[in-house]
Amino acid sequence: MSLGILDLMKKRNDSKVTEFVLLGLSSSWELQLFLFLIFLLFYITIVLGNLLIMVTVRADAHLLQSPMYYFLGHLSFIDLCLGCVTVPKMLGDFLQQAKIISFSGCLAQIYFLHFLGASEMFLLTVMAYDRYVAICNPLHYLTVMNRQLCFQLVFACWCGGFIHSITQVSLVIQMPFCGPIELDNFYCDVPQVIKLACTDTYVVEVLMVSNSGLLSLVCFLVLLLSYAIILVTVRTRFRQGQSKALSTCASHLTVVSLIFVPCVFIYLRPFCSFSVDKVFSVFYTVITPMLNPLIYTLRNAEMKTAMKKLRKACGILLPY
């Protein structure tokens, strides 16, 4: 065993902290009961909404062959998993006074949150490229965005998310914790956890900004540039189909804003925290996975048609 691993194990053995206390969204018992009901509805919407999109895309042969809906199915799977990282724990904490999370459970939340979050950012960037090819080069769209390339791009998104997540966990696991143990949030994340370390966190916070913060900002700027080019192309070169292209881009831009604005706000500023951080955290971990299915279905005629076909095929009355 190398000396580096031995030193890391020694640091972990010297650490006295085995669990953290989550302060949650409120200390009022009555308000917590109200929030439990609200977030329970949110969680049910996340699960059912994203499952509905996944099943609809899988059941419709036309949608399944379309690169855009292939990516949308993966996005819904990520949102489904992302909603399960923090919300179930938060719902349980609403019903008890002691909101405890073990150190290993905290690391697991950080890992899956950043794994899924980064994968979603990369996937949204891929979806922007897909829309760029579809609108700016429509005659070669299916040739360029073939099934093999789509698979490779999705695989690259998952790999990028994995590398990013491992980096975030490594920033936390090497740090000594000896108290305090209170995290001012409803879940574990790197910015809050590293502030509890019994050592100077300057270098780690700079690394966090260079990793999570710059990742969010760069992807966000690339997406904005991509959709700006698309909108200019649609405006100058095409007359027919403008409304459909603009509607699709508007849906994507809405999702992009809901995800990237909170992430840029949280991760691009080290050494400080604000009271509104929890609000942005709720948007990133709960609201965005819930709204994505609604945004993509309410503004998408093809998804509505496919859902009607699915309803008729299954004999189930689905609201739309």
UniProtKB/TrEMBL annotation:
It comes from Suricata suricatta. Pfam families: 7tm_4. The chain crosses the membrane at residues 33-57, 69-88, 108-129, 149-167, 214-234, 246-268, 280-298. PROSITE patterns: G_PROTEIN_RECEP_F1_1, G_PROTEIN_RECEP_F1_2. PANTHER family: OLFACTORY RECEPTOR (PTHR48002). GO terms for molecular function: G protein-coupled receptor activity; olfactory receptor activity. This is Olfactory receptor. Keywords: Cell membrane, G-protein coupled receptor, Membrane, Olfaction, Receptor, Sensory transduction, Transducer, Transmembrane, Transmembrane helix. It is found in: Cell membrane; Membrane. It comes from the Eukaryota. Residues 49-296 form the G-protein coupled receptors family 1 profile domain. Gene3D superfamilies: Rhodopsin 7-helix transmembrane proteins. InterPro entries: GPCR_Rhodpsn (IPR000276), GPCR_Rhodpsn_7TM (IPR017452), Olfact_rcpt (IPR000725), Olfactory_Receptors (IPR050427). The lineage of its organism: Eukaryota, Metazoa, Chordata, Craniata, Vertebrata. It is a multi-pass membrane protein. Putative odorant or sperm cell receptor. The gene is LOC115302263. Belongs to the G-protein coupled receptor 1 family.
